[in-house]
Amino acid sequence: MTSYVRTIREYTSRQTPSTWVDVPLAGAALSEIVLFGHGKDADVMVELLDGRRFVMGLGGALLVRGCPGLESEVTRWDDCSLILRYSGEGLELASFRLGVGVVDEEEFAAAFHQWIAADGADDLHWAVTIEIEVVPSVAGAGGRC
What we know:
Helix content is 12%, strand content 48%. The protein is mainly β. It contains two helices and eight strands. The longest helix has 13 residues, at 105-117. An eight-stranded mixed β-sheet has the order 1-7-8-4-3-2-6-5. It has one domain.
């Protein structure tokens, strides 16, 4: 039997969203990034050290770029779901952006601005592609990464 990874490899290609928006959290101290779910329903949470949590539905790819101090852990949750966690000591967000496909840009912008204004108190109810870059914190890592 051929493994799932070998079977899907030829079908995995990154699709570029038509609209990108920067999330204004560069420099914020990072607690962790968590992906939870499965192929039909997955959410991503970016949790900051100050306790704010920004949750969004994953509709494309999650790309996390980082440094050697960024650790990842994959845990099986149930028969269908996984938890993927990115964390580490003394890390902060360098960049964080969301991409969406063909949408009503005004409607998305309104939802995005409301989400940011509320400091992520509610989930962003849009399926998005997510790109995050993590770097060592000037205050906390001491050049660890």
